[in-house]
Every structure is written in structure tokens, then in C-alpha cells.
Amino acid sequence: MFNPKKILVPTDFSASSDRAVEYAADMGAAYGARVMVLHVMEENVRQCAIDYLVDYCLEDDFVTRFEREILKSANERLDRQVAALKDAGKGYIEFEIKKGDPVDTILEEQVRLGADLLVISSQGKAGSARHTLGSVTDKVVRTSGCPVLVVRT
Hints:
Blueprint: E1 6-11, H1 15-31, E2 34-41, E3 48-50, E4 55-57, H2 60-87, E5 93-99, H3 102-113, E6 117-121, H4 135-143, E7 148-151
Parallel strand pairs: 1-2, 1-6, 2-5, 6-7
Antiparallel strand pairs: 3-4
Helix pairs in contact: 3-4
């Protein structure tokens, strides 16, 4: 019988991801597993955009402040979510925020943590009902080094 000890659950703060976090927390409590909630900040804040429609650049200070605010907001949201789960007796839950490509970062964290189960939502913020799986979920499922539970939304 499969008995996970370390569960990794990525979140993008969508309702779908929130459901995946709940599933992971329930499984963690049931199996006595450690649950790591991971939020990946995409590196898509571009300082300059030059194309045929727009030509602009943002100052370094502005980009730095903007990224700091995003990080602060993500920390606060994860802190509240994890605290609520712990208060509900869901077991040992932590959170982490990384910056990078979501797929690569999720897979790297799975290896680094030694997670033996990934729990991920079928769709994230950019999800669409016409697709079976979101692009991040699809890539993670196809390349993960451990079992993946996809929470259907």
C-alpha cells in the first residue's frame, strides 16, 4: 500500500489550487505525512518591452518594489492558509515561495525535498474548461519523478 511521507502541492492561489491544497492537507493528516505548499513566482516581470506597438522601460526600483510586494502578498496569503489548515488539525504543513519557471521549479523542489507524492490541480489561474489539463499540470504529470495526484476541478 502506498503511504506517502512527503507531499508537495504547488499553488497559484486559484480556487482549483486551493482545493488541491485541501486534498494534500487531508492526505497528510491521514498518512502522517509532511506537506509542503509551494508557490512559484514566475519571472515574467519584464523591465522593457519593445515591439511595434509599445516601446517602454520600467525603472529598476519600480520592478524591485513590485516584486517585493508580490512576495509579501504571497507570504501573507500562504501564512493564513497554512495556519487555517494547522488550526483544523491537518498535521505538519509548511510553505515555501520560489522564483522561476513553474514546471522546472516544481520538479526541482520535488527532487530536493524528496517528495514521494505531488498533488496538483487540473487547472490553474490560466485554466480553461476546453482543455483537459492545464499546461503546467500536463508537463508536471508527464515528467515527475514521483506519483502525481491530479485534483479535478
